[in-house]
Amino acid sequence: MAMLDMRDERAEAGAAEVGAAAPVQTRAFDVIVIGGGPAGMAAALAARKAGTRVAIVEREQHLGGILRQCIHPGFGLSHFKQELTGPEYAQRFINQVRETEITLFLDSMVLGIDSSEGAGASSVDEGAGAAAVHTVTLMSPAGMLQLTGRAVVLAMGCRERTRSEIKIPGSRPAGVFTAGLAQRYINIENLKPGSRAVILGSGDIGLIMARRCTLEGISVEGVYELMPYANGLRRNVKNCLDDFGIPLHLSTTVTRVIGHDRVEAVEVSQVDEHLAPIAGTERIVPCDTLLLSVGLIPENELSVAAGVELDPRTRGAVVDQSLQTGVPGIFACGNVLHVHDLADNVTTESERAGAAAAAWALGGDAGASAAGTSCELMVSPAGIAGYALPGRITAVALTKLNFRARRPVDAARVRILAGGEELLTGKVRPFKPSVMESFPLPAKVIQHALDLGVSEIVLSIDPVEEA
User: Label partner for 272 (CA 20 to 30 A): which of 146, 330, 347, 431?
Assistant: First the structure.
């Protein structure tokens, strides 16, 4: 593993004339990956395999990202054909990274990404031509650094929604945590967040923490879900709630937090079909801890500052088939692009992004347009489809569309539409919001849409009335 040794540079800076500003040090790479979690490591390994000089910038002191605290099994079934815990899954990639010449900048925070057309291209690669060179400015323990490269992969992951973002009324006592923070306290810090917990939200992390708290001797009074269905994977509902006798209350939410210095209870209420609390259904649930599992938000502040367009549905970047954003040479993958259901899917997607970034950095095409005629089509969701990705099609080539249903349905089909005409339809089957779906879009269907003279392809999930 190649590590940056800043001792000589610090010595030189210390010997500089007093009052003189030391120049910001610069390192040149082909591909710069921001984020050292499962997405970042998979992208970096794929880019390195393609023969590029790769750097990973990670704000924590260790690689692995969120998987370091996910000690439950269920990882690796697809990618490694084995059931692993989160740390075991992450360690396999950490070991691979350490066996390569990927340069690591750990405990380093990226401050910004700047792009310049052509300027400085020769410092990255004499064959760069007029391609944009991206400068990633970061603050490390050794001071401020600048990394230059023709391709940048955004792999910053996501963060949890907090109480302030869902605006739960009541007092502001201690004892309200996001489920992920409570998971870190228990699994990493060996701290007990409370003794009697209520969990709001049935996302996977909330379900997993219901089981984890129970195993640690914390009484879980129940899991309360705003929607009329569970938002986590069915296997987690069974393994984490049903097997431990933890009740799941659907169409119910927390309407008030009660307590002075510490949470003493929460008020829960049933909600109507418009998700509004129903008067008269309120009841008080004594507890000293409230865990929130109410959604994840892609960490895209850097992306926006770099000029990357975001999809309002996913809150991630708008990308094409090669996972390239609207800013040439900047790619996105993993949970910073759209929230995934499985880490294995993050790995598969991120390997594509890393390979495409390497192809771009080496002076070729990002991948998709090299396989077919270039074009420009937008992709939009319809029916009960919550989103469709990629949001742009830039090549007439076989394309895998990823999407999720906004609500569960027992019988529905995917339809691909253009200009009001149905181009392709899938089989009738059930869909669940907790499962990330995919649908292959053949090149001939894309060409058909172009022949119609449209600028948009629509992916629609349409419920089917059963006979």
Answer: 431
Beta bridge partner(s), residue 462: 413
* Structure confidence at residue 399 (pLDDT): 95
- E strands present in 209-335: 219-224, 248-249, 252-259, 263-270, 283-286, 289-292, 296-298, 330-332
How much is the pLDDT for 14?
A: 45
Bridge partners, 73 (sequence order):
85
Q: Say if residue 11's pLDDT is above 60.
A: no
Could you tell me the CATH number of the domain that includes residue 62? Answer: 3.50.50.60
- The pLDDT tens digits of the residues spanning 98-131 come to 999 999 999 999 999 998 764 333 333 333 344 6
Residues in the chain: 467
> Same domain, yes or no, for 314 and 283?
no
- In this structure, the answer to whether residues 10 and 151 fall within a common structural domain is yes
Residue 350: name the closest of 360, 365, 340 by CA. 340
Tell me the pLDDT band of 216, cut-offs 50, 70 and 90. very high
Which among 250, 274, 294 is the end of a domain?
294
Same-domain pairing of 288 and 328:
no
Q: Would you state the pLDDT for residue 173?
A: 96
Q: Is a pLDDT exceeding 50 seen at residue 61?
A: yes
pLDDT class of 467 with cuts at 50, 70, 90: low
> What pLDDT band is residue 466 in, cutting at 50, 70 and 90?
low
Instruction: Indicate the residue type of 421.
Output: E
Question: Which domain covers residue 400, as residue numbers?
Answer: 374-463
**Cis ω before 440 (30° cut-off from 0):** no
Q: Is residue 106 domain-shared with residue 202, that is, in the same domain?
A: no
Specify the number of domains making up the chain: 3
Cβ contact 137:18 at 8 Å: no
Between CA 279 and CA 281 the distance in angstroms is: 6
User: 3-state class of 29 per DSSP?
Assistant: coil
Mean pLDDT of the chain: 91
Task: Determine phi and psi for 145, rounding to 5 degrees.
Answer: -135, 160
Q: Which two tokens stand for residue 128?
A: 């760069």
Token digits for 191?
Answer: 């701290």
88 in the same domain as 11: yes
Nearest to 459 by CA among 405, 397, 398: 405
Are 148 and 168 in a shared domain? Answer: no
Q: 243 burial class (0-12, 13-18, 19+ CB within 10 angstroms)?
A: exposed
